[in-house]
Write a structure and sequence with these properties.
ten-stranded antiparallel sheet; globular; DUF2642 domain-containing protein; SH3 type barrels; 2 domains; 39% strand; 2 helices; 221 residues; mainly beta
Length: 221
């Protein structure tokens, strides 16, 4: 993605997977992720989800130049897992699936997924493959202005496997919600996992079969 480095400092319009559009000033470019400033927040966008990028003439946007540096630590080369590790404990907005982003903070970063604490969904497992943006909060206000007792700094920990696939296997026979429960076939008890196909038993006792490669989020209600 080094081709984008020539546009650093320019206004850009980026369409990402899910038909979401990001407008702002291109701040930094790496092989795995780039950073856009939208006038209020720094948006970290994994390159794999960028569908189109257009340059916006300066006369067509009114975004002020940033006056401070991006919040998350950067090395010489932007790398997704390094960004995620530096974001642990920082209040974030992330977008993975559906119409609403998630708010909370990262607790652990594994090989191909990370755990995320949301005050709404509690502990979640998020596939790196499906992470579409990360936005660190620009202030110290907590999500929903919750107090520390309702948004614990150290939520209940769970033993995590190194890979997303193995971790889902460890949830066998548990009641889970996949992909934020966008439909009832994504909510149920894991009955079996075979060659990346997950069989879950839904509320009515029927079997639903899901491709693990399309699992974006997991949480236990």
């Amino acid at each position: 993605m080094k081709i984008y480095t020539q546009f650093i400092g320019e206004g850009v319009k980026i369409e990402i997977s899910g038909k979401k559009v990001i407008n702002g000033i291109l701040i930094e470019v790496g092989n795995e992720i780039l950073i856009v400033f939208n006038g209020e927040d720094y948006i970290y966008v994994p390159n794999g989800h960028i569908q189109t990028l257009h340059i916006i003439p300066k006369d067509d946007y009114s975004i002020s130049e940033p006056t401070n540096m991006p919040v998350l630590e950067q090395d010489e080369e932007l790398a997704l897992r390094k960004i995620l590790n530096s974001a642990k404990g920082v209040f974030l907005e992330i977008y993975v699936t559906g119409n609403q982003p998630l708010h909370g903070y990262i607790t652990n970063v594994m090989n191909n997924y990370f755990s995320f604490y949301s005050p709404v969904y509690k502990t979640m497992l998020i596939s790196l493959q499906h992470l579409k943006w990360i936005i660190p909060y620009s202030s110290n206000i907590s999500p929903y202005k919750l107090s520390a007792e309702n948004l614990p700094v150290n939520p209940i920990s769970m033993s995590l496997a190194r890979s997303f696939e193995v971790q889902i296997g460890k949830l066998s026979n548990k009641l889970i919600v996949f992909n934020l429960g966008k439909n009832e076939d994504l909510i149920g008890r894991i009955e079996n996992i075979d060659n990346n196909i997950i069989e879950i038993i839904t509320a009515r006792g029927n079997s639903s079969y899901l491709n693990l490669q399309h699992i974006q989020t997991v949480h236990i209600p």
